[in-house]
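Form P-L/3: holo structure prediction, ligand NAP.
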Amino acid sequence: MNILITGASKGIGFATAKMLAEKGHQVVGLARTKPNNFPGAFHTIDLGCETARVTLFNELATEHKFDGLLNNVGLVNPAPIEDITLEHFDACIDINLRCSLQAAQAVVPHMKDQGQGRIVFTSSMVVAGVPFRTSYAASKSGMVSFTRSWALELATHGITVNSVAPGPVETELFNTNNPQGSESRARYIEGIPMQRVGLPEEIAAANCYFLVGQSGFTTGQTLFVDGGYMTGKSAL
Ligand SMILES: NC(=O)c1ccc[n+]([C@@H]2O[C@H](COP(=O)([O-])OP(=O)(O)OC[C@H]3O[C@@H](n4cnc5c(N)ncnc54)[C@H](OP(=O)(O)O)[C@@H]3O)[C@@H](O)[C@H]2O)c1
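OUTPUT (holo model):
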């Protein structure tokens, strides 16, 4: 299978690319910086640039005829309500949602032609509500909504659409927004029944299940890979 991954140079995207390649799949990765050891084709691009990304998505979709898409690039822009600028809000919606829509618009025609395809979003546990994540959580909730609508729209074309919603994961993105010793990091871990953050490989495994695994009858779902966060706290 041939899979396109946005935000593939590190963290969850990179771990997923590596796992897919180890399973014998072809991967095309996108990000601003090319890692030394990417296990597939790689294109450097700022996905915040709308015209550049549409051009590249369309070129790549023609060239590679993708079987799968992982919409993984993400921007957080944390802030209390009073400090959110519309510019920062728009940037979150742009890179997390509009970019995902445009990537899907590039790959869906071929998926429809071949009567099969897999689309996966990297959503987040913040859809449950997390302080200071207004813009990010709105965009990640939008991904869950895209997942459900597209699953219905594409079901008869053999295309599945699912989301993986991680809890806190040990990546640069999480560590930058929640540094060691910060109040937000402590709050995240305190809320996780397993009392730890996840590993990128633990999210990659769920992505692989939806992208290339035996998940063909599963669509419109959001799988929380979050150390039990969405299950809630034990009463004991
Ligand atoms: N880590 C967590 O705790 C967590 C929890 C829930 C959901 N998520 C979601 O998981 C996804 C991946 O995050 P991660 O934790 O793996 O973060 P990460 O390690 O920082 O990786 C983010 C990836 O996105 C790329 N990227 C960021 N901005 C970009 C831009 N403007 N243009 C192109 N590429 C860009 C980065 O590469 P370059 O910097 O080289 O461009 C990198 O490859 C995100 O959607 C995030 O919201 C993460």
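COMMENT: The chain has a mean pLDDT of 96.
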